[in-house]
Design a protein that fits this description.
Number of strands: 9
Helix content: under 10%
Strand content: 35-45%
Shape: globular
Radius of gyration: 14 Å
């Protein structure tokens, strides 16, 4: 499999049809793998809910354009903001286990962001305590 602009475009077309304005593309060989590897194409105007991964850290690397990752405390107050951008000094983050965060591409930006995400462990949908409202 090639990870290239053609794949980004294909996944972006699927993201356009999603109310979330983002779409994941699974890079695992099998759904039973004990890791999570995916592309995430983020269109302008998308923002993930504030969430955390309690059992593992998450690695995020920007492959195209720019996106923002924000950190929050347990009360939902923003504590840090990171602009991840291809060609800049900051292209990715290692997000510690238990760190509340969100990922976004602001609606006034013109380009989609594309990131690679890696986490240990089998995929499990987030539970209520993993999300902040």
């Amino acid at each position: 499999m090639k990870i290239n602009k053609e794949l980004f475009y294909k996944v972006a077309e699927e993201a356009k049809a999603s109310p979330r304005l983002r779409m994941n593309y699974d890079l695992r060989n099998d759904e039973n793998e004990l890791s999570q590897r995916m592309l995430n194409v983020l269109l302008p105007g998308t923002k993930s809910p504030i969430h955390r991964h309690t059992e593992t850290s998450e690695t995020v690397e920007c492959l195209e354009s720019t996106c923002i990752d924000r950190y929050y405390d347990n009360d939902g107050n923003e504590t840090d903001m990171f602009v991840l951008s291809v060609g800049s000094d900051l292209i990715g983050l290692q997000i510690p286990a238990g760190q509340f965060h969100s990922l976004e591409v602001p609606s006034d930006w013109k380009e989609k962001g594309v990131i690679l995400e890696f986490k240990a462990g089998r995929f499990e949908p987030a539970t209520t305590e993993d999300m902040l409202k």
